[in-house]
Design brief:
With about 270 residues, the chain is an alpha/beta fold. It has one domain: Purple Acid Phosphatase, chain A, domain 2 (4-Layer Sandwich). Helix content is about 20%, strand content about 25%. The chain has 6 helices and 17 strands. Strands 6-7-9-11-13-12 form a 6-stranded mixed sheet, covered by helices on one side. A 5-stranded mixed sheet has the order 5-4-1-16-17, with helices on one face. A hairpin with a 2-residue loop joins strand 2 and strand 3. The radius of gyration is 19 Å and the shape is globular. Bound molecules: fe (ii) ion (2 copies). The site of one fe (ii) ion has 6 residues, from loops. One fe (ii) ion binds next to loops.
């Protein structure tokens, strides 16, 4: 089973650079093309939030047309830039979002690896929240299937990552979430986005993966800063492979073309 995670499109944002403006929708098109050229193709795609930058319905619509063109099952969840109402309006007809209730949390049951999608949106804030209501829902879902290997997706990382600027915008109440996650040993990983950088952490007796954006990155700032500037490191897709012989393995796949070296065969060991 192969899952592709793409995250943080921010469609509608145009970023000025010394070489002219870059429309993030154009970057997203390149990432989607990269995804459609992956071989083997993923079984499904997880879109882990910040689809639109400003919440404009036109931006959701063009992002949806692009996602539909991939031709694979895909599943969306809210980020801090998203509105639940817009996500419902655009994606409810696809049949997986909860039709009622306050939050857009749901499980995906039809694959060997069970996926739990958490809603960490705190309306009007860049930081996230996993409140007691959402935690109770998660605890119930985990308790009902303790034997099924599970991967959790959530937009905001629930832990500090030694990135002070982004740490201030993490998912609040993460310590309570950690207690629940640590209590259920069927969880093989927790995957997030939001920071626009790649990070991996040992957290709550599992692995926390943070996936870079499909369109732009933020600089690696490990000291406190007042602001953080966008930059264009290679855009990324994270792949999760679930196999009976490997368990959960993750890779980043970088969008763009890079020079290939010529094959030199198997290197000869140094004689000493
Ligand atoms: Fe984002
Ligand atoms: Fe975000």
């Amino acid at each position: 089973m192969l899952i592709a995670q793409i995250t943080d499109f921010h469609v509608g944002r145009i970023i000025k650079t010394d070489n002219g403006p870059i429309d993030l929708f154009d970057r997203l098109k390149q990432t989607v093309e990269h995804l459609t050229n992956l071989n083997p193709q993923p079984d499904l795609v997880v879109v882990s939030g910040d689809i639109s930058n400003h919440g404009n319905i036109e931006d959701y619509e063009r992002a949806k047309r692009l996602l539909d063109s991939i031709g694979l099952p895909y599943f969306v969840m809210p980020g801090n830039h998203d509105s639940r109402e817009s996500l419902r309006m655009l994606f409810q007809a696809d049949g997986y979002l909860p039709s009622s209730g306050e939050f857009l949390q749901y499980t995906i049951e039809q694959y060997p690896l069970r996926l739990i999608m958490l809603d960490t949106l705190e309306v009007g804030q860049h930081h996230g929240m996993i409140c007691d209501k959402r935690l109770d829902w998660l605890n119930n879902k985990l308790t009902e299937s303790p034997e099924r290997p599970t991967l959790i997706f959530m937009h905001h990382p629930p832990a500090k990552l030694n990135l002070p600027y982004q740490d201030n915008m993490r998912c609040f109440n993460g310590k309570k979430l950690a207690e629940i996650v640590a209590d259920h040993n069927q969880i093989h990983g927790v995957a997030c986005g939001h920071t626009h950088r790649d990070s991996v952490a040992n957290w709550a007796k599992t692995v926390l993966f943070v996936t870079p954006s499909a369109t732009f990155s933020y600089g690696l700032e490990m000291k406190p800063v007042d602001d953080i500037t966008p930059r264009f490191e290679p855009a990324c897709i994270r792949l999760f492979h679930w196999g009976s012989d490997t368990g959960l393995v993750s890779h980043l796949s970088f969008v763009g073309s890079y020079p290939n070296g010529l094959t030199e065969g198997v290197p000869t060991p140094a004689a000493n």
